[in-house]
Amino acid sequence: MTNPDVLPASPRIPVIDLEPWLSGAPDARARTAAAVDTALRTAGFLLVTGHGVDPALGGEIRKLARSFFLLPPEAKEPYAVKVGGRGWLGPGAEANGYAEGTRTPPDLKESLSFAADDPTGDPAVDAEWFLPNAWPAEVPGLKPAVETYLRLMRTLSDRLLGLLGVALGEPEDFFTRHTGHPTWGFNVNWYPGRDVVGEPRPGQFRIGPHTDFGTVTVLDRQSGLGGLQVFTDEGGWEDAPHTPGALTVNIGDLMARWTGGRWRSGRHRVLPPPADAPAEELLSLVYFYECDPGTDVRGVDSHTYLRGRLDAITAD
């Protein structure tokens, strides 16, 4: 008899093809859900193909965002915001290691940050979570490209939540019944090389060790020597696998809590720019999906939790 508590041998971060899940064949859907359950119990991460998002769109956003990041500081300053705001997060704005109590130096990155902007009609909720986004006038093509990408991310994230519901042994709408009017965040992260940021300080990363805060994160990343690493109990810190055209998916703290700890919030970091490739430059597109404001997640108000986590990573 198979012991249900013993996980089968498989890659800690597998590549999951979503086509069998979307095809509707019961046996294929069941196999996909089982593979997802195993991955999320182990590392909290997986790669997905068959997601329907054209990689060329991500490439266009990278090109446009990079033109903004390369502007002189005085041109970017009018868009400057704090963590959780909509606009430009400049050097020294964020330290993700703070979220787990590690007083690291600020993260070696800049970000263009966007968030949910479709008002609910509740003035108090809208004033905190559904404000207008700031679009740099210097890069007029960025808004239509990002808005197209965001529509695709919303659809994909709800499909992923449907898959996660079944993987957990629940109805397909177990999570999506709480995403009728959700919050979300979207960061374009620029990781410049040492030729821009200088020599990293001890314990300084492009993004310090942390877990994400929401339900699912969908990441379009570039591989590099100073790239993403994932932590597991079995392997410690390991370079995250990269498959061209695949998107990286990990679950956050709210999802881990929602599952009663069955799945783990994926701990990760982005290494500093490497000494042997000092000019290495990477850009990542990071979509953070959450849920409807006021959702009760096993006795915790989802957005009270999210606000506290966002405040926690604001650098001193």
Summarize the helices and strands and which ones pair or pack:
Blueprint: E1 15-17, H1 19-23, H2 26-42, E2 45-49, H3 55-69, H4 73-76, E3 87-89, E4 110-115, H5 123-129, H6 142-167, E5 184-191, H7 194-197, E6 207-210, E7 216-220, E8 228-232, E9 236-239, E10 247-251, H8 253-258, E11 268-270, E12 282-289, E13 296-297, E14 300-301, H9 302-312
Parallel strand pairs: 1-2
Antiparallel strand pairs: 2-10, 3-4, 4-5, 5-12, 6-11, 7-10, 7-12, 8-9, 8-11, 13-14
% residues in beta strands: 15-25%
| CATH classification, class level | Mainly Beta
Q: Main sheet, how many strands, which sense, barrel?
A: 8 strands, mixed
The count of helical stretches stands at 9
Oligomer: single chain
Low-confidence stretches: 1-9
Major beta sheet, strand line-up: 1-2-10-7-12-5-4-3
From the 3D coordinates, which CATH architecture would you assign?
A: Sandwich
Integer count of domains: 1
The coarse silhouette is globular
CATH topology value: Jelly Rolls
SSE string: EHHEHHEEHHEHEEEEEHEEEEH
Distance between the first and last residues' Cα? 55 Å
Q: How much helix is in the residues?
A: 25-40%
**Structural class of the helices, strands and pairings?**
alpha+beta
